[in-house]
Design brief:
Helices cover 75% and strands 0% of the residues. The chain is mainly α.
Length: 100
């Protein structure tokens, strides 16, 4: 579960950096950021999706929550929300699993 939390944060951060790099590429013709961050973000995206499926038994996500968690991977800051609200252990030591 800890790995999924870390990957969620890294994936969201890499996505934001990739978006900034894309703007810099278009405005200042500096392609190195996209060249470096593109593959890194791609690997983190695949890791996020794979770990979402692997962690599902531990998170006890419903089908709806699973779909929302996967959709979060394609929205720039949504994995931060997933990590903060759905993966961070609740006071009882288990992840928060409120209904969707």
């Amino acid at each position: 579960m800890r790995v999924f939390r870390v990957v969620s944060l890294l994936e969201a951060t890499s996505f934001l950096l990739l978006l900034v790099s894309s703007v810099v590429k278009r405005t200042h013709e500096f392609e190195l950021g996209v060249t470096v961050l593109g593959p890194i973000h791609g690997v983190l995206f695949l890791a996020y999706v794979g770990l979402a499926f692997l962690a599902r038994p531990q998170t006890r996500w419903t089908n709806g929550r699973m779909v929302l968690g996967l959709i979060a991977a394609v929205l720039p800051v949504a994995p931060y929300f997933v990590e903060r609200r759905w993966l961070r252990p609740a006071e009882g030591g288990r992840p928060a699993t409120q209904e969707v």
